[in-house]
Amino acid sequence: MDELEEKIERLASMISESKRIVAFTGAGVSTESNIPDFRSSKGVYESIQKEYKQPAERLLSHSYFEAHPEIFFDYLRRFLVFPDALPNDAHKSLAALERIGKLSCVVTQNIDGLHTKAGNKNVCELHGSLYRNYCIKCGEKYDLDFVLSAKDIPRCKKCGGIVRPDVVLYEELLDEDVMEKAANEIINADMLLIMGTSLAVYPAAGFIRYFRGENIVIINRDATPYDGSAKLLIKAKAGETMRAVMNKCKIEF
């Protein structure tokens, strides 16, 4: 048995013994669904720099959205939305763990909606979701199809205001209710299963400090600042790893 197999066995055992798992996920969970991450050579930030000749922190900021909504929505439609993407084995395994009562919540930095598509009911979306959109003037709600079908800047049918995605842009604060819920879920967990995140984006990454237990598991291909705090560290793809773990646990997903 090689080192990876031993770690998969160990994680399967930890899951079997746990009663209240919280998963904390980032962009690396969705790369196996063919959604690019943010900071790799082919990621979201690189595409912004190459196509629009400016840093992502500017184009995806609140002030830039207000000043240049037409460019913001051009980028969103071309590079940020993947409506045909399907949940991979990482998403499906977390949904299965919730169904059998092992997992209490998914706390995610992702805005792609794949945890919900996979079947998870209790999801704290720290950075919001592209699938929820609203008018900035009257608050009327719209789905993603409405935004994608607009020729240029999506406008509210009721008042003509700009319809924007319910996501947290640079210069904006995380939703207080979502933050409070995520913190409480992590505080009450007996395992924190961290997958597909560099743990470098704050304030979201700081949520793992709320965990009071010992069983921190990190599944990520690259190193993170919290590797030394992990009881179990697996440097591999999240979907492939969780498929093997679920097979060991004999849990259908």
UniProtKB/TrEMBL annotation:
Pfam families tied to this protein: SIR2
Domain Deacetylase sirtuin-type: 1-252
Sites where the protein binds Zn(2+): C135, C138, C156, C159
InterPro entries: DHS-like_NAD/FAD-binding_dom, NAD-dep_sirtuin_deacylases, Sirtuin, Sirtuin_cat_small_dom_sf, Sirtuin_class_U, Ssirtuin_cat_dom
Note on how the cofactor is bound: Binds 1 zinc ion per subunit.
Active site: H127
Binding site for NAD(+): A27, T31, F38, R39, Q109, I111, D112, H127, T197, S198, N220, A238
Location in the cell: Cytoplasm
Keywords in alphabetical order: Cytoplasm, Hydrolase, Metal-binding, NAD, Transferase, Zinc
GO annotations of cellular component type: cytoplasm
SUPFAM superfamilies: DHS-like NAD/FAD-binding domain (SSF52467)
EC annotation from Swiss-Prot or TrEMBL: 2.3.1.286
Similarity comment: family membership: Belongs to the sirtuin family. Class U subfamily.
Name of the protein this chain belongs to: NAD-dependent protein deacetylase
Organism, as annotated: [Clostridium] cellulosi
